[in-house]
Write a structure and sequence with these properties.
mainly alpha; 5 helices; about 120 residues
Length: about 120
């Protein structure tokens, strides 16, 4: 199965899934943890064209899913690329959104509203 098909199946599974249970007070949701870790690893990418500029993610979350060092984390990701497809999705989304925000800021936009979490 290619990555696009795997992502489409994952999104379909999310669409028909039962409502998520509330995250207990003082706890971190699994999706927030995974996104933070993916951003922290992608910020270390050796290729500047693929690296995101997130300098905070590595400080905000601990390494629960992946090792914090780039090479070790990529070894884990490459061992199960379908299971870690979110890594590629989060990094592509981060780079795209950051690029758009920078473009709009250069164009004079003074405020951004985030609709959803």
């Amino acid at each position: 199965m290619n990555r696009c098909a795997a992502l489409a199946l994952a999104l379909l599974a999310l669409a028909v899934a039962e409502p998520a249970a509330a995250v207990p007070p003082q706890a971190v949701s699994g999706t927030a943890q995974a996104t933070c870790e993916f951003r922290a690893i992608a910020a270390q990418h050796p290729d500047a064209r693929l690296r995101n500029a997130d300098r905070l993610a590595g400080r905000l979350c601990g390494p629960r899913l992946l090792p914090r060092e780039y090479e070790a984390a990529r070894d884990v990701i490459e061992s199960d690329p379908e299971g870690f497809a979110g890594y590629f999705y989060v990094n592509a989304r981060t780079r795209y959104i950051d690029r758009q925000l920078e473009r709009f800021a250069r164009g004079g936009v003074a405020q951004v509203v985030i609709l959803g979490a």
